[in-house]
Amino acid sequence: EPEVTQTPSHQVTQMGQEVILRCVPISNHLYFYWYRQILGQKVEFLVSFYNNEISEKSEIFDDQFSVERPDGSNFTLKIRSTKLEDSAMYFCASSEGGVGTTYNEQFFGPGTRLTVL
Amino acid sequence: DAKTTQPPSMDCAEGRAANLPCNHSTISGNEYVYWYRQIHSQGPQYIIHGLKNNETNEMASLIITEDRKSSTLILPHATLRDTAVYYCIVTGNYGGSQGNLIFGKGTKLSVKP
Lengths: 117, 113
Prior knowledge:
The complex is a heterodimer. Chain A contains no helices and 11 strands. Chain A has strands spanning 5-7, 10-13, 19-24, 31-37, 43-50, 53-57, 65-68, 75-79, 88-95, 107-108, 112-116. Chain B contains no helices and 9 strands. By secondary structure, chain B is mainly β. Chain B starts with 8 loop residues before the first strand and ends with a strand.
């Protein structure tokens, strides 16, 4: 069964450093998402991406964050200058269609645990 | 903020049906009800979704009231592996939005032997 993969599974970085989290969505999916979950808290939406551009972003997704689909298979989340409060599990998700279409369920990857020291 | 209200926790005996309620009294006509679950710290997993009609798939059934203000997720024969946090999410296609998922705190379902 096709699945969303994410690398690395765990990333440790120093405050102020840049990190890139990588995701490989399911191959025929067109909609891509990033979510995060701070330990013990809710899953929070960050950004959605379709047709090579951001569709929607939350208040969390400020200028420190960016997303890219560099090569047609990978989908990346970059944090330019990490802060302590960026420590969280980051989940990538993809779907074949958007809400209201037939195949719109989002498939989530296993997550990347980011620890900022 | 999440547009749904769920009980924080529920218990269910293994092999019995688990009925998880959700209130979404402010749901609008073009919004869907989605159910996801999260087992421990894994990525959320899609279960089922519906608009107006009741739905069933290999994992669960979704019963939506006629006024659409509440719904119930039914796991017909719960197993220990169904122990997870279950999220009821209301979302829709808002002028081109893909209907991003806004998670609440969900219901922690504990299936006991």
